[in-house]
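Lecture 7, part B: from sequences to assemblies.

Below are the input chains for today's worked example.
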Amino acid sequence: MANKILEKRILRSDLFYFVAEASELAKKAEAGQFVIVRADENGERIPLSLANIDPDRGTISLLVQTIGVTSTKLSTLNVGDEIKDIAGPMGHKTPIEKYGRVILVGGGFGAAPLYPIGRAMKEAGNAVVSITGARSENLLVYEKELGEFSDKVLISTDDGSKGHKGLVTEVLKQEIEENGADLVIAIGPAIMMKFASLTTKPYGVKTLVSLNPIMVDGTGMCGACRVSVGGKTMFGCTDGPDFDGHLVDWDLLMSRQRTYLAEEKKAMEAYTRGSAPSS
Amino acid sequence: MVETKIREYTKEEIKEIRKTRTPIPEQDAVARGKNFEEVALGYTEEQALREANRCMACKKRDCVAGCPVEVPIPEFIQLVKVGDFIGAAKKIKEKNSLPAICGRVCPQENQCESLCTLGKKMEPVAIGRLERFIADYERMHGSGGGENEKPKPTGFKVAVVGSGPAGLTVASDLAKLGHEVTIFEALHKAGGVLVYGIPEFRLPKAIVQSEVDGIESLGVKFDLDSVVGKLYTVDELLERGFDAVFIGSGAGLPMFMNIPGENLNGVYSANEFLTRTNLMKAYLFPEYDTPIKKGKHVAVVGGGNVAMDAARTALRLGAEKVYLVYRRSMEELPARKEEVHHAIEEGIDFKLLNNPVEIIGEDGWVKGIKCVQMELGEPDESGRRRPAAVEGSEFVIDVDTVVMSIGTGSNPIIPNSTPGLDLNKKGYIAADGGGATSKPGVFAGGDIVTGAATVILAAGAGRKAANSIHEYLMSKVKN
Ligand SMILES: Cc1cc2nc3c(=O)[nH]c(=O)nc-3n(C[C@H](O)[C@H](O)[C@H](O)COP(=O)(O)OP(=O)(O)OC[C@H]3O[C@@H](n4cnc5c(N)ncnc54)[C@H](O)[C@@H]3O)c2cc1C
Ligand SMILES: Cc1cc2nc3c(=O)[nH]c(=O)nc-3n(C[C@H](O)[C@H](O)[C@H](O)COP(=O)(O)OP(=O)(O)OC[C@H]3O[C@@H](n4cnc5c(N)ncnc54)[C@H](O)[C@@H]3O)c2cc1C
Ligand code: FES
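Predicted structure of the full complex, as structure tokens:
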């Protein structure tokens, strides 16, 4: 089995960056696609974006935010361990072409797919502006990485400890007003993508979002990932993950994401009990 | 080999036993509604001998004609009669490589058993139960060896896409002919619908696993987590040194009704509902990580095997009330009779001649399903009477979970990534009787060609394709 972890970096207490061996995947995958991962034999299948793809080295990178059992299980893996299953690349790649001025907006693990997408956009001849935010400066991640290809990186923090004091959407609005944009790509929590889309709508700037519905197989077999876009039901995994943010039914997405809140809480309690050192 | 004491039946006794088929021991209906263990427990040796002795070994052999792969039924039953269970297993396997599975899930009442000569006057011979007995006997006692001699390698490599009954059969047949076979499977476990769809209580996963292990022991490689069309295209497989490709990717695309409310929380496709439960083992949550909503009042929409499985799964997950909403009547129910019978025994409430028109929600969650009553009119193309809505007959059933089980279609991943592969009107791969497609070196069979069908038809298509692939490869040698 492949899937061996070659590097692990802890970016924040709840954000882990892994580089894993996956030579076939690395040959095939493109910016914007994702993989389905299982941490162990009893594990759930969860989708994770490709945070980097290195065909020469035969590796892919994943950025994992720990919020529940699977992401926590993954965070305990170390260099040399194997990720039980990695399947992909799933979904369509982000359409990379020369748009002109492209603004990337990312929060939390949303920065993961933005990295390969932004790099490809830059290589395609676009001017790239990245906007990222956090509650406070010490929680900011990926600023340096986004800087590798961005013409500028704009920051916002809730407490004003760095950059603009407030929300990324305010920075986005200001940037569009001052310098214009031909394409906005927003990736992160649904609520952020919703407000980024609402922000760009009055300006008529095309806005791509990468939707994160609950998934199982990731291949179009189950329909768990149903989203509504422009009034049509689509499968997040095979029709997406990128969609036109102005057409997405955000309330439906957020409602469906909450389907298993009670079960997830129970699972986390069981997991914490099970993995606690016995005394 | 295990000695079996043969009970010889006198003429009078045979006359008597022919009247009724030997019942198969089953778990009690109330108890089994609360567990995922197999419902039917299988014949004992005595029971199998009794049932085998009901067979008249008639000259007509109509049963064989009723079997899509023409298992030599009278011959294997004859071997059961004399206690040669291993011989009987070999006899079946001449035609059917998955008897433990087919004995459990084939719709025998529409196939072999429907044509049984005895069945014209009395109950037909329980051919499926005998097949199951023989396959289980062989699995438990070993095959006596002999057939697993390593064939001479041909040097040809074949890629098989999908590990359902079609893919498994192709792989095993080709491996036995000396070809090097790799199965590419999208999921993390091999078996196709047999592992993700059909529930444990009808087909224990250990049985599927033992078939998979057997095929692995023939030297077949399993490349799991490999989505063909994504990780490798069919053309890339051919470029990478595979001399032929077999596509057995099934009909796994779930359909919805496109009625209001279908995206509410608590509405599942049968595929999702069953995959969470079977493949991901959500019934053992939180020991297994994947959750499922355990509905109290569940409506399953549809009338096929899949709908029966979903309804009976909902019951076992703890539902107090499970409705099966089907737009035609009992007569048209396409599910296996045994499953319908089991579902009724277990207390599933059949809402026949009803069709959902809306799923009613509250705060994003299912609260009810609005149905309209149907009446049957003239027969349609399928020969079944066409249902039509009775105006003004709408009513609401209070439920918190809805499972849509109205059929599946062709997944577009492979068609879209394979130029030169012709499809039929419905989007399935066009293939001839031997599985050859419009693309040289590319064969296909099973549900991806026929649309959702049966295990035995998929396995049969696999066998035919293995023969054509073998011929195709051997013709390459001569050139
Ligand atoms: C296309 C796509 C790309 C994603 N990329 C990343 C990424 O790069 N990094 C990252 O950290 N996260 C990513 N996510 C989200 C990630 O899949 C969820 O955070 C993860 O499934 C949570 O699992 P858990 O067991 O740790 O938490 P849980 O406690 O099980 O769930 C927490 C929340 O995560 C969501 N979730 C749970 N199970 C699933 C599932 N099977 N599929 C999707 N969402 C689920 C639900 O909204 C849930 O409320 C992505 C999601 C999608 C759909
Ligand atoms: C719930 C349920 C109950 C059923 N009950 C019965 C029954 O009682 N009796 C009966 O005879 N039949 C029954 N059937 C039908 C029967 O299971 C199918 O007809 C049969 O499994 C079809 O076999 P197959 O090999 O063509 O495809 P499948 O069994 O569907 O297997 C296809 C495999 O290919 C994989 N795959 C798909 N796309 C790709 C890709 N791009 N790359 C790699 N792998 C891929 C899938 O993951 C899957 O594992 C039932 C079906 C269901 C869903
Ligand atoms: S995740 Fe199953 S269809 Fe999209």
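Note for the exam: The two ends of chain B are 47 Å apart (CA to CA). Keep this in mind when comparing with the next example.
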